[in-house]
Records
---
Amino acid sequence: MAQFQGTLHGSARTAASRQGTKMSGLAAHLRGWNLGVYVEVQHRDGRDTILVYRTGGSNSPALQECIASLGFEGGDAGQSQRKE
């Protein structure tokens, strides 16, 4: 059963959607030529987390730094951090 869902919109007529389980997670790399973000959704230690990394886009796709970390645990809004 899917724990996570993602939808991507672009020039295609329809959106592309994907699902991830607690085991697989879900990840996407959205990018221009020199700037991008890599987003990971995971389930670790009983809580859902989202990590957002800055990348160098298509020109340099390596993860450069974590710019945001979000967490959700049960009915609690969890912890949110924005890094700059």
---
Amino acid sequence: MGDRAGNFAFQYDGSVSQLEGIVNDAEYYRAIRNRADIKQLLCHRHVRFLIAYEPDLGSYRQHMVETIRTDLSQYPAPRIEVSASDEVIRVHNNDVFDPVAANGDKTSYLYAWRLSCD
């Protein structure tokens, strides 16, 4: 999510954990480095929602959310599996998330999923 996390955090009246690890703690960094189960760590921290900018997922059952985008890094970071049944919202607005204006970035949809911690 990168700089988008800061924008979201500014608007949101709650805590935000930025998954790319640029601004996080040592425990999270070790989990990323060791390719640990990030979902388990987030559940332990009582994270309730996962928010990501993604391309149009269309009709999907499962999706893997990258903790570090592969188009921005060569590091094979852990991913978090989400389900369509946990999707809370999908927002698309070309005026705000125009992929052409964003230098070809295809992540023009904002998704939110409940983080299933069963």
---
Amino acid sequence: MPWTVARSLLSLPLLAELHEVLSREKFRPYITEDEARQFLATFAGASEWVEIDVTINDCRDPSDNKFLELAVSGNATHIVTGDNDGRSLGAGRECKVWLHPHSQGQE
């Protein structure tokens, strides 16, 4: 199977989620506020920005719908997740879901 270049998709709702998560106090031992800001700026600059043009309410956890909306709006072929709920994201869709092998299925 030939290798293809992966692309990261990003939307405003996903960027807001990343910012909120990386701002949590429990992550301070691992990433400083400045490092989080630098990561977000770098990730935002390297990602393909997608305007969300669908509304999806298929996820058990409604806060996960934004990930599926991004995948569908951006014509993603895969979703990589560390969330056990992510296994159901691609159900009935042409997008494959890969559960990261080091995932503990926890937030």
